[in-house]
Amino acid sequence: MRSGTCKARVVHVFLTGASGYIGSAVLDALVAHGHRVTALVRSDDKAERVRRSGGEAVVGDATDGRLVARLAREADGVVHTASAQDVDQGLIDAVLDALGGTDRPFVHTGGIFTFGAAADITEDSPVAPPALTAWRAPNEDRVRTSAVRTTVVAPGIVYGRGAGIPTMFLGDETAPVRTVGDGTQRWTTVHVDDLAELYVLALERADQDGYVVAATGEAPTVRDLAEAGAAGSPVVTESVDESRDRLGAAFADALLLDQVAAGSHARSHYGWQPSRPSLVEHLRSEAAGR
């Protein structure tokens, strides 16, 4: 990673994905920290939700390079949480072009699957993505090798706010809760509101080629998660083939990865202090409330 920060106090932020799972939490965190946010959303209904959360909204499409470039030029920093295979290449090019020659930061979204199965994932770990997210690597390379002040945030398995992949383990006493595979693999995790705080810290720090794994250090097994959320339902293990048939091969293969990350760099470099309940605690609480 290249050294150097400007530690800018960003005032006006252009945010993508503000109506989505991670982006809505990032919007709330940015507003809470005193930033003005302009969010690009795809409908009037989503625009109204952004306004209720304290942001300003522009209705349009993240694949509209001219619109993205204009909004980026008008802002003091950019956060992209609407990361998708059909969006990222064009959006990245538009943002990097708009911010070129400035010290305004760009925070991009990656993901923990990039590192494949590994027991001690750090920012310097080799990459070995599954088919599901192999498309991310060239886009991240484009971001990191640019002259713009960029940071890639790579979240672990995200939970909280009643959404996220782990909700698959919430039982209702009408059907068994199924693991993915035999459930012995570990997932490295992060609460969506803790994650949102890290996005704000990364934006304000404005590193030159920053990269941060967003993980709290909690890495429960999938079996632990299924048991925590079962709510009286039986927990049933599956073979790999059964999980691939149920979830689709690409998605199942990603969820079958055994991954552990301590998130030490996020704490030491950015001053991140995650404080929300662990995923096991969260699932137990959610199950008890059903």
From TrEMBL:
This is NAD-dependent epimerase/dehydratase family protein.
